[in-house]
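We store sequence, tokenised fold; for instance:
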Amino acid sequence: SAHVIYEGRSEGLKRVGFPEDLRIEDFRIFTHGFDIMCNHTLVYKDKPNDRHIACGLSKINGSEIEFWEVPKLPIKTGKMEKNWVYFSDGHIYLVYSVNPYILFRYQKEWWAKCEVESPELDWFHKGEYLCNSTNPILVGDHYLMFAHTKQAMRFFQMALLIDKNTKEITHYTRNSIPLRNISTDGIHKGLIYLSGSVVMGDKLRLLF
């Protein structure tokens, strides 16, 4: 279930407009104008032996999370789609992947593929698919986002910068960012998976 934090209190969000036969997980948020948007994973439960996972987009209205849509992209997508991430500059952008770099912009009820360069990312963890981790956030003249590869429940974190104007990838880390001195008690002890980031004052806060 989805929860929001108001002045230190955790409050559940009422689901509005969602199909009944699914589970919602992997919540991330971003702002679009004055709206708080939420991207998340939809796990359909109608066929237990034939998994169907999609990426949904919703809007948070006070104590409600209202389902908007599963974006219909002009490319072939699979039955198990996860980790689409979003940002807004007045238009909503969807980062489908970073390697190759595939970006879409919402155009009045349809998603248009953006013409951007797709640099070959020289990532140290060769042969593994780079998955999106966080919604890009604006820091100065660039959007900062994180991506990851995974091996044996260990996540390797990449940071990328996307130019605010051109929406091109301009910088990235070739090696995994070391995250140390972090308490990792939880369901999977030792697992660190970044799911959000926010700038507070002069500090970057990472959520996992």
The mean pLDDT is 88. The CA atoms of residues 130 and 149 lie 5 Å apart. The chain has no helices and 18 strands.
